[in-house]
Amino acid sequence: MANALEIRDLRVSVEGKEILKGLTLTVKTGEVHSIMGPNGSGKSTLALALMGHPKYEVTGGEVLFKGQNILELEPDERAWLGLFLAFQYPLEIQGVPLGRFLWAAKKAQLGQSETSNGKPDKKADAKALGEFRKELKAKLSLLKLDEVFGQRYLNVGFSGGEKKRAEIVQMHLLKPQIAIMDETDSGLDIDSVRVVAEAINQLRGPEFGALIITHYQRILNFFRPDYVHVMADGRIVRSGDYSLAQELEAKGYDWILNGQEQGVS
Amino acid sequence: MPHTTNLQSAFSSETIRELSGRYREPAWRTEQRWRAFEIFQKLPLPDSRYTKIRNLDLQTYRLAPESSEKLPEFAREREAIYSQIDNAVVSTKLPQHLREKGVIFCDLETALREHADLVQRYLSQAIAPSEDKMTALVAAFAASGLFVYIPKDVILEEPLRLVHLLDCSEIAALSHLVVVLERGSRATLLEESYARHPYGDGTPFHAAVTEIYVGEGAQLQFGGMQNWNEETYSFVRRRAQIQRDARMHWTIGWLGGKLTHSYVESRLMGPGATMEDIQVLFGRNRQHFDLTSSLRNMAPHVKGEIHVKGVLKDRARAVMYGFIKVEPPAQQSNSYQLAQGLLLNDGAHCDAIPGLEIEANDVRATHGASIGPIDEEQIFYLQSRGLERERAKRAIVEGFLTPTLEQIPITGVRERFHALVEEKWH
């Protein structure tokens, strides 16, 4: 049975202003969904609200993940369940090396899922750390980032493209079941888009589902999403398969939006 | 050994007579005590706009008699070669090979007997007893202290480790440290301060003066780590006189104390002298820190950098003063000062007060300050990866401190500071 992220009639406000106005969407593992839409349609709000950003107030609807209502959960608890968000603007954090941080995150996740007896097993830890280091090295190389990025402080001094690729490194190591990617492709040159898209493709399979928010159809050329949705004014206004993305590329958003009461905000 | 416990107040003329007799001090030293005592009586407590000294009654403290107690494993673990409990110097032992090189390392009273001329040349020269009430107090009544003398061109590979432990809260712990590096010599000095009773009752009191003389081309790294208990009043004044082409490097970590009052001054007195003054503090509960870093450029081509970082939790407060004075001869000097504060919750407070006084025209002197609450966006980012909120905050705090701690030249100190921050988190 596939694990699913079920968003039902979700309403979200930021500082008293309603941004999501009843959004419904289900993403199952094994599926890749893409959400497209003009600026201001609420795409990033959806991503941040799903991850539990404290500024985004849920005023209606529900979000189930693996059948559990996650709206009451802290962001870290959502992560432990297997949800991941690749940030549009990854934060820079001084003094926290990427590798060490990811190891801490990984251990936090394992600590939650394991039914251990609470006794630290040093030998097992050392072995796990060794494997983790190997994997980190491999994933950095997959994303065409130098090995030293593991020791560099989280996103500090990274270029825009390096930050986005580092997000995908994190996603690979944390192995979520459902990943939300918020404009991971924006600000990337064409070669980086290819690298990122290939890395995402590697994760595809029955155990992995993705919700890819993008502004451009470009990245979708490298991995065909199973579903394409168009978002406008806080709702999904049209859904289709990959051909919808191609249609949008050719015709723009206007032909869909003109059928709506409200235009681009 | 005579005791001073039955006196009305330990800070009296009887005590000075007793001290100078006990140690058979040279006349000039006793004379210095008398003058300092006079000043001590006249001066008020070093109160300031940001730091009100409440509930400190100096009359209630006594000066401890010599203790024969051995310092526990504590000092041994830290490989200390000097240790002091409250007011009693418990051990000074310098390795043989350093003695052979002419290094002097002994308590101040012994130094006064055995190296009187040398001590007279340096004692109370960099820091005048009259600077404030506490410097006067130390000059008048300190019976414990340390004299360190590194001869010309002698290079010490291993750090000299000093440990000071506060035990009895009714005793005024005073200490006077004099460090002299002759031309071309090099040393690392590490001073650690701890409380025997982390949650003891009473209000321990500590006042210390550290005078440092860095000769031509010499290099000194001074590491300080203060972890008194949170009932302690502590007043520390340190000054380094740095000669031509010499280097002075301060790294000080502040964790303890109810009220910590620190003044660190670097005087770049010879051309090409350089200094770095790096201080980090972590305050919680109702701790109060008043830290001054002062830099005086007194010669051309000197370079100085001050960097103070504070993390404040609960209702802790800190004021971080950074003063740079560039005197007329200090052309083509370079100075920089940065103060950063991270507030973990409402109620924690931090002020950064910079001061620039420039009397030369061809200089660079800059300062910066940033103080603010911990960033919620950063917390969310780390949480989204599976770190619990508290752990996310801790990672951010450690990250805030790490780049600074990495500049501490002694690995053990760096790790101990991290570990102590970890402990203080709870």
Describe it.
- The complex is a heterodimer of chains A (about 260) and B (about 425).
- By secondary structure, chain A is of the alpha/beta class.
- Chain A contains 8 helices and 10 strands.
- Chain A has helices spanning about 45-50, 75-80, 100-115, 120-140, 160-175, 190-205, 240-250, 255; strands spanning about 5-15, 15-30, 30-35, 55-65, 70, 85, 180, 210-215, 225-230, 235-240.
- In chain A, strands 6-7-8-3-9-10 form a 6-stranded mixed β-sheet, sandwiched between helices. In chain A, strands 2-1-4-5 form a 4-stranded antiparallel β-sheet.
- In chain A, helix 6 (about 190-205) links the parallel strand 7 (about 180) and strand 8.
- Chain B is α/β, with parallel strands linked by helices.
- Chain B folds into 2 domains: about 15-270, no CATH class; about 375-425, no CATH class.
- Chain B has helices spanning about 15-20, 25-40, 75, 95-100, 110-115, 115-120, 135-140, 375-385, 390-405, 410-425; strands at about 80-85, 90, 105, 145-150, 160-165, 170-180, 185-195, 205-215, 220-225, 235-240, 245-255, 260-270, 275-285, 290-295, 305-310, 315-325, 335-345, 350-360, 365-375.
- In chain B, a hairpin with a 2-residue loop joins strand 1 (about 80-85) and strand 2 (about 90).
- Chain B is globular and about 70 Å long.
- The relative contact order of chain B is 0.09.
- The interface between A and B is medium-sized, with 32 and 24 residues.
